[in-house]
Structures are given as C-alpha cells and as structure tokens.
Amino acid sequence: MRIVTVLPILSLISSAFAYESLKSHANGIKIGVAGNTIKFNNRAYVDAMSNFNYMVAENGCKLAAIQNRRGSYNFNDCDAHLSKAKELGMSFRGHCLIWHAHPPSWFESLRGNDLKQAIVDHITTVLKHYDGKIDAWDVVNEAIDDSSNGSQWKMRNSFLYQNVPDFIDIAFKTARSVSPSTKLFYNDYNTEGIYGKSEAVFNFVKDLKSRNIPIDGVGLQYHVSTRTYPEYSKINNLISRYCSLGVEVHITEMDVKVDGNESTQSKVYTEALKACLNNSCCKAFLVWGVGDNDSWLGSSAKALLFDSSYQPKAAYNALLQTLGGNGGSNNNNNNNNNNNNNNNNNNNNNNNNNNNNNNGNGSCAGLWAQCGGTGFNGPSCCSQGTCKKLNDYYSQCQN
C-alpha cells in the first residue's frame, strides 16, 4: 500500500519539475513574466510562472484597477500579485502609474489643474502604499506618438497632453519626491529598433536626462513577430546607446507572434536576451504572459514561452540554453501526460480553472479580466461591469 501511495506522488513531482528553470541560471539578471490573478488558482499556470524570478501585473496595478473612482483606492488585485510574487520568491515590477489608454471616466474628464492634481495624488498614494515593496515602476506608459521619427519625436495627442502638456515631467518629479529609492521608467512599444519611433524615444529619453528629469530607465516592450523583428546588431546597438545615456534598460513585455515559420521564434527570443546580456545596463527581461492561451494576442498567435497546457516550448529551451542551462528536457517527453492530467492536482477541478475567469463567480469573467478577442476561448460575459473591446485581440470587463 505504501508503494502504491508514494509512486504517484513521485511521478507528479518529477513531471512538474522535469525541466530546468530560467531563474536557476539567471546569474543576476531578472527574468520576468506578466501575471494575472484570475489564473492563480491554476496549479499548472503557477508552476510555469515559478520558473521566473520577476513578476509584473498585466492589468492589476494600473490606474483604472486601483482608483476606478476618484479618491477611492482599491489595492486588492495589485496586492494579490505582489503576494504571489513573494510566495514564489520573485521580486516585483510596477506597471503602470500614468497611461492615456483605458482610463476611468472621471480621470479622463478632468481638465487643467484638476487633472494635474489627480496625477500627483495617484502617484503619491500608490508609491507610498508600495514603498520598499516594489523596486521599479513604469511611471509613464506609451506617451510618444507612433508617427515620431528620429530626433523629431511627437507627443501622443492624448487627453493628458492636451490638458497638462508637461504631465511627464510632473509624473517623474512627483514619483522621485515620494519614493527616492524606486527606479523610475518610461515604457513604450515599437522601441526595439525596427521603426523610426525607436530613435525618437531614444532622443526623448535623452532630452529628459538633459533636463534633469529623474528618469532611471527605459522599458522596451518588444511586441514583435517571426516576420517582423529587429536584427541582433540593431537591438544590441540600441541598448548600448541607452547604456551610454546612463539609464537602465528593461525588455518589459516581450512576445513573438508566430507569423509563418514557427522555428524563427526561438531565434527572435534568444537574440533579444543575448543583446540584453551583452549590455551591463540591461537588468531585466520580461515576457508578456505565461502560456499561449494567456496572451493578449490570442492563443493562435503562439507568442509565448509555454504552450496552452503550460508545457515549455522550443523558445523556452532556447532561452534556457542562452543562460547556460541544458534545455530540451521536457518539450516532448513522456511526462507531458502527467502534467496535462494534473494541472490543478485534482482532475475534478479542471473545469473550474479552465472556465472560471473571475475567481469563483460563475462562468462570467470578473472586473478587469479578459472577456473576448481573436483566439480567446474564455467567457464573454462579465460578472461586474461590461465587456469593452480594446483591440481585435483583447476585450476587458470594465466599469
């Protein structure tokens, strides 16, 4: 009886940890992943996430999640992300304090000094709440217009810029005064060396530094595909130039949409990591989601390091080898069946974890959870709020 009881347990343990973790070979660099509390009750999801040493919340720490009503701060979701990170031995990155997209209606409707004060109040309250708990924050997110090219950067004509033209300066100065030890980042997309916006953002950051705006780093989001991606020489040179500015670099939201040749995905991921490792100012490398089914691009994009069953893909093993690990030990071995059948250590709970995106409130998604998009197979109704389309790939339950 003892043998019968013990062997399945040993089988579970060996299958759950049959591949090396990225964090075990990180050697000082932060290897991170975007998490979402709606998946924290899925054991396979958490097991996959535990291979990283750095976490960022996909949505839970944004202004709309924390201060959906003016002056009423709800840190529950952001706190839950931070708590899970601590449980898994991960440090935590804050994303993001000020962003023009998907704001609460009260915030977007403010004008002039009222909006300026709301910016100051939000940054002050959030940074005080997380003082000493979060080591870096994206202070401002995606403020440069996509049409920017070279030295001629152009501010996005958002309600923020229209009403408080110097909102970026105000945001960084406020953040520094409230939390002097927190590293302060500007974060943006199309900044990895493919488009003219890459050079524009570089010169924008250079301008902030020249005016003594307290910026510590830049986040390169790195949303690319197997068809459109930067060559190693370009991203390596770009990061090197940021090092020369005296700022830290984080690759913050990497995913690689499979558009044609899936084998190219490993190359794109590894060249980005190699460029980061090759430059001393690049301190963090994060992917934007755990498994393919968690991606904002939809599961059909196959954009992440784990498949939809949370098994490591070739790209995961390629990154592991780049860090000095062996790789390849669990991609197609016989342990897959054990992992697939025991995602939650209880087969009777599988339906709950697969169909319940709101931590137990029936079959509808919870507030701020995904409720639609190309390739999304989860619930399309919301237990709170309404389902709002953000883009072709992602709809979200919002108030």
From TrEMBL:
One of its GO terms (cellular component) is extracellular region. It catalyses: Endohydrolysis of (1->4)-beta-D-xylosidic linkages in xylans. Residues 23-322 form the GH10 domain. Residues 329-354 have a biased composition (Low complexity). SMART domains: fCBD (SM00236), Glyco_10 (SM00633). Residues 1-18 form the signal peptide. Its EC number is 3.2.1.8. It is an enzyme of class 3 (hydrolase). Residues 326-354 are annotated as: Disordered. The keyword 4Fe-4S does not apply. Residues 363-398 form the CBM1 domain. The keyword Disulfide bond does not apply. GO terms for biological process: xylan catabolic process. GO terms for molecular function: cellulose binding; endo-1,4-beta-xylanase activity. Keywords: Carbohydrate metabolism, Glycosidase, Hydrolase, Polysaccharide degradation, Signal, Xylan degradation. InterPro entries: CBD (IPR000254), CBD_sf (IPR035971), GH (IPR017853), GH10 (IPR044846), GH10_dom (IPR001000). Belongs to the glycosyl hydrolase 10 (cellulase F) family. PANTHER family: BETA-XYLANASE, GLYCOSYL HYDROLASE. This is Beta-xylanase. It comes from Anaeromyces robustus.
